[in-house]
Design brief:
7 strands, 259 residues, single chain, seven-stranded mixed sheet
Length: 259
């Protein structure tokens, strides 16, 4: 298992507890683009603890999820094992053995960017049936828009303790998604389409610390710097009312294998 995969697997409990689920509108847009039913074969790449899996399983499709992390997979099994159409394989896409043209829909939720682009698109294209679709989506955590003093203090802590600081946040836009969707055309995909959604979630200081433990760039900091960063953020949230709101932008890119 790659080092970044171990980072996520070691934080499986925190990941399951505090990472957000995805908006219902996202699944509606996927199913509108690629209808999924009981005869459909669906593959999820890097399913984690199953945050993006339930709405797909509810279609009754033949579902297979790939997750290399043992701890993440165990939580996914606990969450979703009651579905008789749920199948989990402890494997990376790179190690997954399967005949070509096996799936009607393949998707990845905040996971596809960890796979080398050339390999990832080509492998997905190979595994899709003609006329099948690929959906990649992810969320991007934005600063607390309602507590500007807190946000400024946290950015100052990042500049002090994280190498290179934390760059100014730039919201992910629909134009960004459309550009990302068109990337698939380089690998033979057609009919690119993009959607963007907004959502927010409130965190206590304790829950926000759990969220930070699921961020690879935070957990790979030197322990002393990480402790100072986490302590500073925790105390800043406490001083500014004891809560922090994360404003998420979720992007969805859809593309089709010509059939």
């Amino acid at each position: 298992m790659a080092e970044f995969e171990r980072t996520f697997d070691n934080a499986a409990r925190e990941y399951d507890a505090v990472r957000p689920e995805y908006p219902e509108a996202l699944y509606q847009d996927i199913f509108r683009y690629q209808p999924v039913h009981q005869e459909s074969r669906v593959l999820e790449i890097g399913m984690g603890t199953g945050k993006a899996t339930g709405p797909v399983l509810k279609t009754g499709c033949h579902f297979l999820g790939l997750e290399p992390g043992e701890n993440l997979g165990a939580l996914a099994q606990k969450r979703l094992g009651g579905y008789n159409n749920f199948c989990l394989r402890q494997a990376r896409l790179q190690d997954f053995q399967c005949p070509a043209e096996s799936f009607d829909l393949i998707y990845a939720a905040t996971a596809f960017h960890w796979i080398p682009q050339d390999y990832g698109y080509q492998r997905v294209y190979q595994l899709l049936k003609p006329g099948g679709a690929f959906a990649r989506f992810a969320y991007h955590a934005g600063p607390d828009e309602g507590r500007q003093e807190l946000t400024a203090e946290i950015y100052q802590l990042y500049r002090r303790y994280m190498h290179g600081g934390k760059g100014q946040y730039r919201p992910f836009t629909l134009a960004d998604g459309e550009s990302l969707a068109r990337e698939g055309e380089k690998y033979g995909f057609s009919h690119p389409k993009a959607h963007v959604y907004q959502m927010k979630r409130d965190f206590s200081p304790e829950k926000y610390m759990e969220l930070l433990k699921t961020y690879r760039d935070h957990m790979t900091l030197e322990p002393e710097l990480r402790d100072k960063l986490f302590t500073g953020i925790f105390q800043a949230i406490q001083r500014h009312g004891g809560a922090m709101t994360v404003y998420y932008t979720v992007d969805l890119e859809l593309m089709r294998k010509p059939g």
